Each structure stands twice: as C-alpha cells, then as structure tokens.
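pls design
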C-alpha cells in the first residue's frame, strides 16, 4: 500500500473529532495498547492508519458512545465479526446494508450451485426458493449440472438481507412482475435514445448512462409512492382534526381577503384624480 493511503494519528483525530469531540492522540494510543487496533509502523516507528484501521476505530468509538460497552466486550465483538462493514451496519453506524461488489469477470461467469454457499454465504435451498419465484434462474448444463449466473449475485445478496427482516422470496414476486412490465417501457425508450452508435463501447456507455437516468427517475416515483402508502397504512397521515383546523384557517384567511377587497372597492376614487392632474402639470413644467 502506498504511503498516501495511510493517515497519521493526528489526521485520524482531525477526521473523527467532529463525531467524537473527546478523541485525542493519547486515547488512540491507549486503544492500541489494549489490543483493539494495530496500526502500521514505518521503519522509524511512526504510526500509520489505513482505511480499515480508521473504520475499526470508528466502530469502537461508536460502541463506546452509544452502547457504553467496555473495551473487552468491544474487542470480542470485533474478533467475532466476519466483516467489519456488516458489524458497523448491525450496530447502527451505517444506514445502508453493506454489499460487496463482485468483479466483472465473476459477474459474467456461470457458477455451480454447490459453490454459492461459499461465494455468497447463503444456503442452496434459499437459492432454489429464489428460482421458484423467478427472482433468479438456475441454468441446466448439457451434463444436467445446475448453474447460477454471476449477474444474479446482487439479487441473491439483496434477498438474503431482506430475509433478515422476515421478507421471504415469495413476498418478492411483485417486484418480478413490476420488472417485467417496466423492462418493456425501458427498452422502447432506450432504443430511441441509442440512435446510430456504431461502436459497441460507445453504445454500451450510452446505454448505461441512459438506463441509470431512467432508473433514478422511476425509482424516485416508486419510492415516494411506496413511502406514502406505507405511512398512510401506519396512520402517519393528516388526521380529520388536522383537516378541520386547516379548513378553519383557510376560511378565516379567505374572509379577511374578502373584507379587504370590499374595503378597497368602497374607497372614493376622487382622491387619486388630483394626484394625476398634478403629475400631468409637473410633466408640463418639465417640458417647458
């Protein structure tokens, strides 16, 4: 790792002090003495902290601040965690489920279904449930081997995370139907946007950009609609009492505007005429 990938202890303190105001060089050294972090050392003995060191330190500080855990318990949690990002999500430090991205060559390969537990950490039976609900495909080889397309890995991971919330593959059938409907609309739009691109690379890049834009827009509509429906179902909506208050306020405001309009209409018009004459007179004086 190049030196520029490391931070000094002072840089780490400056980076994290906004969230942890009491953080200091001595506190980081103390955590090192307790065996919770092990920074890299230069030949001259200076401490250098990688991104992984900083992430680990932030988990420690977060658990101290929010869970009041003693250091020995925190160390045990860290030692038992299979993945630091997953632990950070589980303890509330990250708001999104961390998903590991696969390299392009892995995404484009076919993998025996027996390898999926080692590759993704999910059971074969779970993959079969996904296939039964058309979320992924199990491809049969000429030798009748069951293969999984690497491009389906992302779906498998998302579904596996959703299972933690007791959302089963059968509950996700609606998204399969929605994707089937939307794909036709996307295809029609994208065909028109691609034009006469001759280069495959140019075409692929343009297709990727256009798809992302369309997806972001339609996903925004979908998310807003879904949020509204869920909040309505959970009664996080405007109650009848609130509607009555709004009606009363609007009625009161409309009444005030009506009175103001009537008063304006009742004002004598003659008051403005002398002013107009004076204006014309002054203009005549200026011309002379």
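designed seq:
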């Amino acid at each position: 790792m190049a030196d520029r990938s490391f931070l000094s202890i002072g840089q780490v303190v400056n980076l994290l002090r906004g969230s942890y105001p009491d953080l200091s060089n001595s506190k980081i050294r103390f955590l090192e003495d307790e065996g919770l972090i092990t920074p890299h050392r230069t030949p001259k003995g200076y401490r250098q902290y990688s991104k992984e060191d900083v992430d680990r330190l932030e988990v420690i500080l977060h658990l101290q601040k929010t869970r009041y855990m003693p250091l020995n318990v925190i160390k045990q949690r860290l030692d038992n965690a299979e993945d630091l990002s997953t632990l950070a999500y589980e303890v509330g430090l990250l708001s999104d489920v961390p998903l590991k991205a696969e390299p392009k060559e892995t995404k484009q390969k076919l993998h025996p279904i027996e390898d999926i537990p080692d590759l993704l950490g999910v059971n074969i039976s779970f993959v079969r449930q996904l296939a039964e609900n058309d979320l992924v495909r199990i491809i049969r080889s000429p030798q009748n081997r069951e293969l999984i397309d690497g491009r389906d890995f992302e779906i498998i991971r998302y579904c596996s995370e959703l299972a933690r919330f007791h959302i089963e593959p059968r509950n996700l059938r609606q998204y399969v139907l929605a994707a089937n409907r939307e794909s036709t609309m996307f295809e029609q739009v994208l065909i028109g946007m691609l034009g006469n691109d001759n280069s495959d690379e140019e075409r692929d890049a343009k297709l990727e950009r256009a798809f992302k834009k369309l997806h972001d827009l339609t996903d925004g509509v979908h998310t807003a609609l879904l949020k509204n429906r869920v909040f309505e179902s959970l009664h996080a909506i405007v109650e009848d009492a609130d509607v009555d208050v709004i009606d009363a306020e609007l009625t009161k405001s409309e009444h005030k505007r009506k009175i103001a309009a009537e008063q304006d209409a009742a004002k004598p018009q003659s008051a403005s005429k002398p002013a107009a004459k004076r204006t014309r007179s002054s203009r005549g004086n200026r011309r002379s």
